[in-house]
Amino acid sequence: MTKILFVINPISGDIDKEDLEEDLVAFCQRHQISASFFRTTGEQDEQKLQQEIEQGQPDVVVAMGGDGTVNLVAKLLIDSPTQLAIIPQGSGNGLSKDLDIPQDFEEALHLLAEHKVKAIDTLQVSGHHSIHLCDMGFNALVVKRFCEGDTRGPGAYAWIAMQEYMSYEPKRYTVISEGETLFDGEAFMLTVTNAKAFGSNATINPNGVINDGKFEICILEPFPKTASLGILYRMYTDSIDDSIYTQRFSCRSATILNHAREVTHIDGEPVDLPEKIEFKVRPQSLHVLLPTPGEQEG
Ligand SMILES: Nc1ncnc2c1ncn2[C@@H]1O[C@H](COP(=O)(O)OP(=O)(O)OP(=O)(O)O)[C@@H](O)[C@H]1O
């Protein structure tokens, strides 16, 4: 019998999940799955969850929350055979969208019964793990303000972004990979990712491949206010590469000097990183349940 541990974030996405838990129990009974539950509290969740996984030895751990919850679960499963499943219940749900995991609760739950397994790359960021994306600059500042506020959901994020945009000043970064300086200058934001898009569906890395052993550093250089609508349009039409304000580098490892110690986030959670940040890909280090039925990959 498959053992599944559900990790439920009760506050993510501003969604009440109590009724959903009854559906989980019924689904597991129907499919003869042995289910256990872990509810996050926002305090020492990583240590407590690690203990739970060590004791219960589940085959699959389901992250039921947003990108922060996915990160919490995924980092404990890296380099282990235990598989990650995602039932998106957050504000942005960036990684699940990138992996084409259904956003609908019932459909995502159905994946537990019928799926394929794919090994995806993850990113090591100065002692942290990033599963979806890490960035510094404007978006990271918006994420920080969002986390400090008490309103969740995509509307709150968009409102904060509009407020911060008016006064944001670009910061200086230096990007070095394999001994070569790839970029040294100011940027509005700098995104390091394996994935294609943010949780808002804005595409920053249109050709990103999540299991190619490489990650991308996407730089949005300072731009005049008159160009902002055009950049947004390109992000939502998969044509950001056509913008004269972007640069992108594919790397296996890199160092970024964040000279101003500008705000940084990893998978939607603000993180305090040193001025010199080290990035390294961990190829195919995480096994994820995906929608297409068929043979196991990678
Ligand atoms: N019971 C809880 N009470 C308060 N905060 C919690 C609780 N459980 C988890 N958290 C906090 O929730 C955050 C993670 O939320 P998560 O990213 O999953 O959802 P989201 O922010 O709504 O969605 P997304 O990241 O997709 O935009 C973490 O900061 C974590 O500390």
Describe this structure as you would to a colleague:
This is Diacylglycerol kinase family enzyme. It contains eight helices and 16 strands. It has 298 residues and is an alpha+beta fold. The chain has two domains: 3-121 and 286-290, Rossmann fold (3-Layer(aba) Sandwich), CATH 3.40.50.10330; 128-282, Tumour Suppressor Smad4 (Sandwich), CATH 2.60.200. The strands form three sheets. A six-stranded antiparallel β-sheet has the order 6-5-16-13-8-9, with helices on one face. Helix 6 packs across helix 7 (154-165). The structure holds adenosine-5'-triphosphate. Residues 9-13, 40-42, 65-69, 90-93, 152, 199, 268-269 line the site of adenosine-5'-triphosphate.
Overall domain count: 2
Quaternary state reads: single chain
- List the secondary-structure elements in sequence, H or E: EHEHEHEHHEEEHHEEEEHEEEEE
Mean pLDDT: 93
Q: Which band does the percent of strand residues land in?
A: 25-35%
- Helical run tally: 8
What CATH architecture of the largest domain would you give?
Sandwich
CATH class of the largest domain, anyone?
Mainly Beta
Q: Looking across the biggest beta sheet, what order are the strands in?
A: 6-5-16-13-8-9
Number of strands: 16
- Name every ligand kind in the structure: adenosine-5'-triphosphate
Per CATH, what is the topology of the largest domain?
Tumour Suppressor Smad4
Taking the alpha carbons of the first and last residues, their distance comes to 24 Å
Task: Give the key terms.
single chain; 298 residues; alpha+beta; Tumour Suppressor Smad4; 2 domains; six-stranded antiparallel sheet; 26% helix; globular; binds adenosine-5'-triphosphate
